[in-house]
Write a structure and sequence with these properties.
Rossmann fold; 2 domains; 14 strands
Length: about 400
């Protein structure tokens, strides 16, 4: 696995270094990924791609170098891949010795937490593309840390706005046993309070049922109780959520991590020129683009946009521009994206989609904000406790 990833990174560099003038400005990015040991789940229909994340960054490098020949700028990507059992100290040491000033962090939350607590060079601009935890935007933000992956609060707010627009205001919440499930459930509870929904009943999936064999009998019993408009499921790894649809006691829609789900990117998004990005990614990697691929793509494109707009390869100038009010990223979402100065989060619309159809995109019409409608998703400035600047 590791050797395969190293070869891929050198191929990317080799392809991007052809036909360049000797005086081209060179800008290097570092991609640091730690694989995650996924526990066995009941539903194994969709396997996680081995190159999830890096594939998006590689495509962005290739696309950027196509136009970079005209601007006299060359972009390259170096990748370091760590096994799940790699020590956090080893990962931190690699970051300390890295010469690249732009670093993409594809790390689980526990490792990212350790990285943020380490004494690292603050002149490195880091992009979080894998951890949706709200604490990194609210309590543990850093002036040199940006987030291109939406937070859980953004995802839950996006879903909640649409449910309230449909007047599906009474929810039953079914929560899985894993830490990510609990955090998504907590985000949904926060969104319910924020937008005026009512969680009429909460239940826990204990993981003891074999839903593949007993779903027809177990799910109706699990979903009995108070009257509700929609069943909200919190099952981030896809263990049991797929088995809730069409099996509930009452005929109710399912939303959350399964059913109608919020996401930064999915193959059903085709508007605003997205179909061209989707096609390029499929040809490049042989599979559809997902949210983490998109987050990595957006991180690379942010650096490229900063370099092109400043006309410079100086990392400090690029970093300052990316975090300035003037920065805008064209990202196939129908509007220009920018970073929130109080949390480093990339403002962006969130898609609400089913398995084969894009339903809508939030923020929903009518949800207003004094600065940007995109700031109705997630934690706003008064809710953030840490200071980036």
């Amino acid at each position: 696995m590791f050797h395969k990833w190293v070869i891929a990174s050198f191929v990317c560099l080799a392809l991007s270094s052809q036909s360049w003038s000797a005086d081209a400005e060179r800008i290097s990015l570092l991609y640091v990924k730690q694989q995650v040991e996924r526990p066995p789940v009941l539903s194994n229909l969709l396997a996680v791609a081995e190159d999830e994340g890096p594939a998006g960054a590689r495509l962005a490098i290739r696309d950027s170098n196509t136009t970079g020949r005209f601007t006299g700028q060359q972009f390259s990507l170096r990748e370091i891949n760590f096994a799940p059992e790699a020590s956090r100290a080893e990962i931190i040491e690699q970051l300390k010795t890295a010469k690249e000033r732009f670093v993409i962090l594809d790390l689980p939350a526990v490792t990212l937490d350790a990285v943020l607590r380490a004494d690292l060079d603050e002149t490195q601009l880091m992009f979080n593309v894998a951890a949706p935890d709200d604490r990194f935007r609210v309590e543990q933000c850093r002036k040199n840390l940006l987030h291109t992956l939406p937070s859980r609060a953004m995802l839950s707010d996006a879903l909640s706005q649409y449910l309230m627009k449909k007047r599906w205001s009474k929810w039953m919440l079914v929560e899985g046993p894993l830490q990510g499930d609990k955090r998504f459930a907590e985000a949904m509870r926060r969104s319910a309070k924020k937008f005026g929904a009512q969680i009429v009943e909460q239940k826990i999936w204990d993981g003891g049922r074999d839903a593949r064999r007993t779903a027809q009998a177990e799910v109706p019993r699990l979903t009995q109780g108070a009257d509700y408009d929609v069943l909200i499921v919190a099952d981030e790894l896809g263990d049991f959520g797929e088995y809730l649809m069409y099996r509930t006691w009452a005929p109710r829609p399912v939303a959350g991590t399964q059913g109608l789900f919020p996401t930064a990117w999915y193959w059903t998004i085709e508007q605003w020129g997205a179909a061209q990005l989707q096609d390029r990614f499929v040809k490049f990697s042989g599979r559809p683009m997902d949210a983490r691929d998109y987050a990595a793509w957006a991180a690379v494109r942010s650096v490229v946009e900063g370099a092109v707009r400043t006309g410079s390869s100086v990392s400090d100038k690029i970093s300052q521009y990316i975090q300035s009010p003037e920065f805008e990223l064209a990202a196939y979402k129908g509007r220009k994206l920018s970073y929130r100065p109080w949390s480093g989060q990339l403002r962006q619309p969130v898609a609400l989609t089913g398995a084969r159809s894009l339903v809508t995109q939030s923020p929903q019409e009518g949800y207003l904000h004094r600065v940007s409608e995109l700031d109705t998703l997630g934690f706003d400035r008064p809710e953030v406790h840490c200071k980036r600047n």
